[in-house]
Amino acid sequence: MTESRFVHALALGVDPAWRRLAAKERCRGAEELAAALAAGSEMTTFSYSTIGLEPGVDLLLWSLAPSLDALEERAAAVLRSAMGAWLTVRESFLGIIQPSQYVKKPTPQEQSLFSGDRSRYLVVYPFTKSTDWYLQGREARQGIMNEHMRIGHDYPEIRQLLANSFGIDDMDFLVAYETDDLARFGELVRALRGTDSRRSTIRDTPLLVGIHRPIAEIASLLGAR
């Protein structure tokens, strides 16, 4: 992907009081939420359940849009829905998908996570490097990243995305992985922690893990039946 596209990971928590509403009202709210996510054709949003997996987070919305304005409008529509009145933004990570300065020819593993079939799990987190990292010469940084990428290529079944967050969020990057095998993903993480690139890592939390489910299924799990 050569053009810039904006990506957004929006983690939402449901007020426990919502579950005490009448069943009819819960169902109506869930239907409005689904309609808000389906509206519009210029952007893509996938939904993930985080129920009981992260304190205070029940729903993770993973969106791709041509502009920040479109992401804002989608988030506003979600929060305006009947169920949205019971939702709280717990985490919000923004990034721009752009060509990497370290990758000359991206492999399918490093393409957008918004194409093709969805894997079962999405892992997303903010990432920040140290000042010393950026003050190193280009050659030194490229050598360290080459080692990092070699290890990543040993796990071709795990797709990854690195989006620049400079100037639009508090972190340097938004990092995301798609996988059907979380144990295998854990092996990748352990392998990457033994590389030189780890020395320059300042922040790589909170780490959110979501299970890919249609929004109607997530609403049902939450109590909209």
How does this model look, in words?
By secondary structure, the protein is α+β, with helices and mostly antiparallel strands. The protein is built from six helices and nine strands; from the N terminus they run βαββαββααββαββα. It has helices at 23-38, 68-80, 131-135, 138-152, 182-192, 215-222; strands at residues 5-14, 44-54, 57-65, 87-97, 121-129, 159-164, 173-179, 201-203, 208-212. Strands 1, 2, 3, 4, 5, 6, 7, 8 and 9 form a nine-stranded antiparallel sheet that branches. Helix 1 runs antiparallel to helix 2 and helix 1 (23-38) runs antiparallel to helix 6. It starts with a strand and ends with a helix.
Concise synopsis of the structure shown:
The protein has 225 residues and is an alpha+beta fold.
Helix content: 25-40%
- Outline type: elongated
Mean pLDDT: 93
Please outline the major beta sheet.
Answer: 9 strands, antiparallel
Topology record:
Layout: E1 5-14, H1 23-38, E2 44-54, E3 57-65, H2 68-80, E4 87-97, E5 121-129, H3 131-135, H4 138-152, E6 159-164, E7 173-179, H5 182-192, E8 201-203, E9 208-212, H6 215-222
Antiparallel strand pairs: 1-3, 1-4, 2-3, 2-9, 5-7, 5-8, 5-9, 6-7
Helix pairs in contact: 1-2, 1-6
Core attributes:
nine-stranded antiparallel sheet, 9 strands, alpha+beta, 225 residues
